[in-house]
């Protein structure tokens, strides 16, 4: 059976879209395989201009009833959530009647880190008869393959920073904090938390400008990897052209990610940006020590 026949057999795919270019890149990839995609951009997170020429239905965070009603009417059983969403307070949710019934479970899920919260949201979705999938399951080609992207190559000094970065993320993973760290000369300069990768890189750039970082410009690596026990259906680490721009402003040597566990958005533009900035981008194979 061809990929297009499998896509048609599985029916439409519902996609709840946060911010950034990744949701539409995945939607285009899925549609190219012959599968219809129902887009549900989130108000306050998704870019309105990006959806102007696409069929879509806007929803507020917490309005899963609208998604479920439309998806069922279209014969859809699979749902994907992707794109950037800042963890909201409970008071920012706009629950419809459907979501109100699940609110006790959601309130309990808030008492934990992001992975704990998102995994519980996934279970709520599945309890209502849908199959909840990760973006990589519907568009596996978006995952980084082992090797270097672009012309840049890490030096031996960079290799040591990469190894330390992955070791740190493995050790910190159980605390459900973040998916990224910046290391220079075996010195941890910054750790991602609630602000996200882009803001962490902006913080490194500010630290350099203020003289708080003693290592030379052009030294240091952004390292990204999923948490060891992370629910892969949610929030896999991702990089794109904006990540390269942030690394360049932070005067880093490059970016290292976990191959097979990291989404690459707009790969052609990413490589062009990395080559122009003379920054290396490398995907490290699973099981490697970096």
Brief summary of the model shown:
With 290 residues, the protein is of the alpha/beta class. It is 37% helix and 17% strand.
What share of residues is helical? 25-40%
Helices and strands, in N-to-C order? HEHEHEHHHEHEHEEHEEHEEHE
What's the CATH superfamily of the largest domain, by name? LpxI C-terminal catalytic domain
Anisotropy-based shape = globular
The first-to-last residue Cα distance is 39 Å
Class derived from helix and strand content: alpha/beta
Radius of gyration: 20 Å
Q: Mean pLDDT, rounded to whole units?
A: 86
CATH class membership of the largest domain: Alpha Beta
| Count of all domains | 2
Fraction of residues in β-strands: 15-25%
Quote the CATH topology of the largest domain.
Answer: Cytidine Deaminase, domain 2
């Amino acid at each position: 059976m061809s990929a297009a026949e499998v896509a048609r057999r599985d029916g439409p795919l519902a996609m709840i879209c946060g911010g950034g270019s990744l949701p539409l890149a995945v939607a285009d990839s899925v549609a190219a395989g012959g599968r219809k995609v129902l887009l549900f951009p989130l108000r306050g997170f998704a870019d309105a201009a990006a959806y102007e020429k696409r069929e879509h239905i806007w929803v507020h965070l917490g309005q899963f009833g609208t998604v479920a009603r439309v998806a069922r009417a279209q014969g859809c059983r699979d749902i994907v959530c992707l794109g950037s969403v800042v963890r909201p307070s409970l008071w920012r949710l706009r629950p419809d009647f459907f979501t109100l019934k699940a609110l006790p479970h959601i309130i309990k899920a808030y008492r934990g880190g992001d992975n704990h919260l998102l995994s519980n949201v996934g279970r709520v979705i599945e309890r209502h008869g849908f199959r909840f999938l990760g973006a990589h399951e519907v568009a596996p080609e978006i995952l980084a393959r082992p090797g270097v992207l672009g012309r840049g190559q890490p030096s031996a000094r960079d290799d040591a920073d990469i190894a330390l970065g992955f070791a740190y993320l493995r050790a910190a993973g159980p605390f459900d904090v973040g998916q990224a760290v910046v290391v220079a000369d075996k010195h941890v300069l910054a750790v991602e938390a609630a602000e996200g990768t882009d803001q962490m890189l902006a913080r490194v750039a500010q630290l350099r400008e203020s003289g708080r970082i003693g290592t030379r410009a052009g030294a240091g690596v952004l390292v990204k990897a999923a948490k060891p026990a992370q629910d892969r259906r949610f929030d896999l680490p991702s990089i794109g052209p904006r990540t390269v721009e942030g690394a360049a402003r932070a005067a880093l040597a490059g970016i290292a990610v976990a191959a097979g566990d990291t989404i690459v958005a707009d790969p052609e533009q990413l490589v062009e940006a990395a080559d122009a900035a003379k920054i290396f981008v490398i995907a490290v194979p699973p099981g490697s020590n970096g």
